[in-house]
Amino acid sequence: MEEQTPVEAPSVEETATQPVEILTSEGKFNESWRESLPEELGNHSIWSKYDNPVDLVKGAINAQSLAGRKAEEFWASEDANDVSKRNELMGIGSSVDDYEIAYEAPEGIEVDEDRINDFKQFAYENGLSKEAAQALVNWELEKVGQSIGDEDRAYEQSLQEAESELRSEWKGDQYEYNLAKVANSLDYLGMGDFKEDPVIANNPEFVKAWFEKVVPLLDNDKIIEQRNLDNAHTIEDQLIELESKMYSHENTNDLTYQQLTKQYGELLSKKSELQGSNY
């Protein structure tokens, strides 16, 4: 009889590395497999509810469906607490006062606070988020600034084109002299505002026609000189009044004082122009 070699039992390490069947022959989760999972998973209460893969999958699908319905109910709810929570999540103000609009107006534009307040009311009533409301104000101010810049550039271009056309006909000092005649005659006839009207003042055809047809009817300089003298006296009165206001103003650094000094400088310049046109 041959001597049989004894078979050694597998070591503990070898046993531990052998894969554990997930399911039993009955199709349920193997207890040994569940125990081999990390503790927080293996001891979870879900295994007491689902002991096989089919029930586990059905439960997961049902939980996902319930979560979707709960979310839909939350977003459609009219309950005050739900509405408050939704507004908080979306950044929507709970009152008009929650909308704090910061802005920096483009140069030359003054923002109307009443319009800002009206927009806050609009943002609140229409459920705009505070971030969206601020973005809309920024966008609007940016567009206004661009529009003003475009208008300024177009105006400057029209001035240059008008001057270029007139200078092509009125050479040298003739340009300044003829233009002064037109300006003085407009002032004399009480139509000085037209000098600031781009449709008229920047229209070379109008300026030339006025110089050729209207200026000669005023018998040259005498009447216009008298008008300038009268205007100069009026400006002198205004300068005296401004000087009084500036002298009595306490704060020389505030906006009001700066506006007074600006007006004073403009009047001095105008007075100088009128006096210079009389020589």
Descriptive notes:
The protein has 279 residues and is an all-alpha fold. It has 4 domains: 18-76, no CATH class; 92-169, no CATH class; 170-218, no CATH class; 221-279. Helix content is 67%, strand content 0%. The protein has 13 helices and no strands. It has helices spanning 12-17, 31-35, 39-42, 46-49, 53-76, 80-90, 113-125, 130-169, 173-188, 198-201, 204-213, 221-248, 255-276. Helix 9 (173-188) packs across helix 12 (221-248). It is elongated, with a radius of gyration of 44 Å. The relative contact order is 0.04. The model has no long low-confidence stretch (mean pLDDT 76).
Arithmetic mean pLDDT: 76
| Annotation field: number of helices | 13
**Percent helix range:** 55-70%
Q: How is the biggest beta sheet arranged?
A: none
Q: What is the gyration radius calculated from CA atoms?
A: 44 Å
- Can you tell me the residue ranges where pLDDT is under 50 for at least 5 consecutive residues? none
Structural class, from helix and strand content?
mainly alpha
